[in-house]
Design goal:
The structure is a homodimer. The first copy, chain A, is mostly helical. The first copy, chain A, has 9 helices and no strands. Chain A has a domain of 136 residues: Tetracycline Repressor, domain 2 (Orthogonal Bundle). At the A-B interface, helix 6, helix 7, helix 8 and helix 9 of A face helix 6, helix 7, helix 8 and helix 9 of B. Chain A binds a DNA duplex through helix 3.
Chain lengths: 195, 195
DNA sequence: GTCTATAGGTGGATAGAC
DNA sequence: GTCTATCCACCTATAGAC
């Protein structure tokens, strides 16, 4: 706010474009040139906002995680039913597909070996956050008798993240969001209490 | 066999190296230069065997699928128990991780939007093959009363492929094959008949 | 904050000698 | 089949003017 009031705005627009490019092409398949062309500036200008591509990628993951946390808080505030929470969680992945994208962090996991260490760490942290939120929903839901599953909540949470990430990417390859939605529904109905 | 008897051998070695590079770095993050350096030849020599990178990538998927089909035939020949078949199928993904790699086609699915159309088609065909084999195992296993699940076998097969692919990539990011193995076990035990 | 200009490297691919 | 040499496009990044 003090100086250059539109600095943040430009940075955000850069991140918006970069995010979409990662979600459709991957981290190693987009360039400063792609962003510059779309934003209508030169490549050099981008380096003012993000000196290195690795730094941009790192910020991208941090922002993606912050957006997720807000969405999870929204779910927690919107419903107390654990089944509804899981459905709305799966809907986050579905929405990405309807925007003709994949999950940013799912894509990055496939490129894990090529990412700079700070991005690798941020990526694992993103998955940890997903896992922890799901584990709480699962644990308390079962405690309340509204979810049915065996084994440790954390391990089931990992299964959910893995399944949804995998289904997200494969459905993208088929250009078919419905394919994801059916798979997610199949996955989640296993948690409904037996009547 | 007729002429240049070691032609196939060199091509295979190129494919071996390319395959490992895709499984660890992705299709867009390896170059002819990487292969040439490892094989001890020049980049130009590689173009004799594979004129274009897209052609190389296409052959890579075809060979990967052929290897899979052989592994599936081996499973079919080795056991009749559907649970054992599913476990051995999941073991294919685990073996990849123990070799410090991801599933080739899982990685490629994350780069789908950047692949030349022939590779996109071959990729979907690979997933189709997995799905079909699993659907047969699931359908006949349930018919024989040795598997327990509801819904269409094809849809359950898709869930299995998605979950295993996703778990494969995330476990790779954590450098932890055990993480995959626990998730796979959790996934498969849901299919055991209730005693 | 954005520009021009450029550095220094790597990408896939080709021509032609051997 | 493999080599040298080369092309041209593209990459990330920096210097310095405006």
């Amino acid at each position: 706010m003090e100086k250059s009031t539109n600095n943040q705005s430009t940075s955000q627009r850069i991140l918006d474009i970069a995010e979409r490019l990662v979600q459709t092409r991957g981290y190693n398949s987009f360039s400063y040139g792609d962003i510059a062309a779309e934003l209508g500036v030169t490549k050099a200008s981008l380096h003012y906002h993000f000196p290195s591509k690795g730094g941009l990628g790192h910020r991208l993951i941090e922002r993606y995680e912050a957006t997720l946390l807000a969405a999870l808080a929204d779910i927690d505030q919107g419903t107390n039913d654990p089944i509804s929470k899981l459905r709305r969680y799966a809907d986050l992945y579905a929405t990405v597909l309807h925007n003709n994208r994949m999950c940013c962090c799912g894509v990055l996991s496939a490129e894990y070996g090529t990412l700079p260490p700070p991005m690798q760490e941020a990526l694992r942290h993103y998955f940890d956050v997903n896992e922890r939120w799901l584990a709480v929903v699962l644990d308390s839901g079962r405690e309340a008798g509204r979810l049915n599953f065996e084994r440790e909540p954390v391990e089931v949470a990992r299964l959910l993240v893995s399944s949804l990430e995998g289904a997200n990417m494969i459905a993208y390859s088929y250009g078919d969001p419905k394919r994801f939605e059916r798979t997610a529904e199949l996955l989640l109905e296993a948690f409904e209490p037996k009547t």
